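Figure-free illustration: sequence to structure, shown twice.
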Amino acid sequence: MKRLSAGLLMSLVAITAVAQQNKDNNTLLWKISGNGLDKPSYLFGTIHMLCKEDAFLSNNLVSAIEKADRVYLELDMDNLFEMFGAMTKMKMNNDTTLADLLTAEEYKRVKEHFESKKTMLPFSMLETYKPLLASSLLMEGGIGCDEQVAMEQLIMEEAKKNGKRIEGLETMAYQMSVFDSIPYKMQAQELLKSISIGDKDTDGDKEFSEMMKAYKDQDLEKLGDMITKSDAGMMQYQDVLLNNRNRNWVEKLKILLKEKSLVIAVGAGHLPGETGVINLLRKAGYKVTPVENKSNKVTEI
């Protein structure tokens, strides 16, 4: 399940082939041009949390933000009214809690595990949340460092420094509603699978470490390959969790890209694959090409 939880954080999608990238030129930054655009836009793959020492904006990404007219994230994280209003959407419907979905023994295991970890919210609140969200919070606490940084926050800070308006491709309320499409009982069982009390050397931990390394290596092919090995039961919800959102975003971008030059920053797993944003943009007639994404080197973008 840690594979799937990591996939939810990174918004990973299944991949059958990634012809657009080779191992010697891994990157998270892509240039969108052609199809009648006057100015190029840029697409960047994020991850929600990284250790502070691993988080950076490359010179080329900083340059792209500086030149862009507007910055788009998955959500407008600067809209506090929307963010606070969506908090209630994190809870399960009908006052359901984890205790309703698990046996007494299973519930005890989950409670003890959460209470032994450092999470932002108390278990009394988390047990009312949709279990896949709770699982994601657990994983954020398991990154293995004291100081963590959200890539979206770094991008927002850079955008504000350059006076760029920040918008969202979808609302948080919509994102939260997606989880209602997956039975809570199944989510609870997946959460149960993802915990391992007193054992830090599980296959799930190793897979999560590999996934984090793939992100830091900017290896979209590796990230996509790992998600194809995720839990088969949960993969039946790939369309509602990932693919449909990709299609919706590209339809919206067809309009937005005509009007302004953008930097679009979404979960890295939304980029590769047949139903990924890169391929969908190409099918829509755009030229999407890799841009070097290193912290100490600038190339012409």
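We now fold a second protein in the same way, so the two outputs can be compared directly.
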Amino acid sequence: MPDTISTRMGDGERVKMSPEKIMDELRAGSENAAGMARIPVLTDDEIEQLYDIIAEPGRVVSVPHGHELIMTDDGIAECFVGTEADGGSGISISRQASVLSYERGLAADTGSIGHSDYSFKPVKAILDVELQAYHTISMLTTAPLFYGSQPNMGLYFQPDGPFPNPADMMPVGKIKEAQAAQEDAAEKLCADMVSIGKEFNAMGCEGFNFDTAGSTGDAELYATLQAARQLKQYAPDMAIIIGMASEFVLGMHGEIMFDEQRLAGLFPHDQVKLAESVGADIFGPAINVDTSKSFAWNLAKAVTMVKETVARAEIPVHPNVGMGVCGIPMLLEVPIDCVSRASKALTLIGKADGL
């Protein structure tokens, strides 16, 4: 056994740790997840297996043959044309060329496109452009092609939108007014998402991705669940992904309910049951990274939550494995050593259905 193992912190800093320290970090990370979400910790055997994955000497690690998983994404098919500020390559090519390169050059399981802002509200103004882009690309691709976007209810509040901003009202004690504004914004957001989804379905969309759901709290998740239910009833053959913004639903409203379930405070193993209830085909948990903690600590936390989510789910679970979630350090260009180890751990220990 080596004296030290090269690993990282949650902010990507390179560090060396002793095997004993890594084992301590793994146990602590799992205990943190279990304590917050009130779920079981990883077993001793699973901690040992997780340690072995982190301690593997190769820069890139992988799963054994037969354990490979399908991959979905949130606009990464456009990474070649995306700007460096978004983690892209900034190559002067079209969206179509980027998606085809991703599919054919990288052997992608699925592909996706989305508006450059990746939010539903801006899509309304250029919906015909997005429909045409999706239609053209879908005629040239073989892999399933999703259209993705974030609910991003924040864009519906002033100064960007028509509704009063809860962030301005809550600090001065206008709690009921802030809740009412969120409810009004959620109603408008839901209507927009349903309208856009119906247009994409009519055009022949293969799948719709509600990405980063709940980013502005429980009212946004409420709107997303309502929209997903309505779309699934209208278009039962169009696949729907609900990918979360964080491990914990923020109670910005605090009292909003969906099917008699309070949304504030729900963890992934409860979130997935709501996604199932509205007809979602894939659920994507997002487990937040603590940049002050080690990669081992963060990964153990993520695997613990994903394992419990998969155990309770009846639909495929595709953990969000990217910048700042599911163990991956908070870096724009994520390090492959951490990405491959997180992917292997979530596959073999977390029992994820995809990534």
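Summary for the second example: The mean pLDDT is 95.
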